[in-house]
Specification:
This protein is α+β, with helices and mostly antiparallel strands and 99 residues long. Helices cover 21% and strands 20% of the residues. The relative contact order is 0.20.
Length: 99
């Protein structure tokens, strides 16, 4: 379950990155129009480690596999790469993680 934070950002119940354990509390829509919360199969990038993730139906996160990633458009892959570069350049501190 989520609630609207601003036009594109939704406050989330805590979900853990399956790779590093980072617990995001918000999801921001990077593509598309409208104001809707994350849905099953929406893509996310972990702010803790940069892993490419997908939302499950219950809004928990899972790793995106290679076949799923290969089906993304070049534009989607570019956005993911830009997000990963930004995350690498702006690492979170240990106290910002919610392990």
């Amino acid at each position: 379950m989520s609630k609207s934070f601003d036009e594109r950002t939704h406050v989330m119940e805590r979900a853990l990155c399956p790779i590093c354990g980072y617990a995001p509390d918000r999801a921001t829509r990077a593509m598309g129009k409208g104001n809707r919360p994350p849905q099953k199969d929406d893509i996310s990038v972990c702010f803790g480690c940069g892993a490419v993730l997908q939302f499950n139906a219950d809004l928990t996160l899972r790793s995106m596999n290679f076949m799923e990633f290969s089906k993304l458009t070049p534009y989607q892959r570019r956005l993911i790469g830009e997000a990963q570069r930004w995350i690498k350049e702006h690492p979170i501190t240990r106290r910002e993680t919610k392990h």
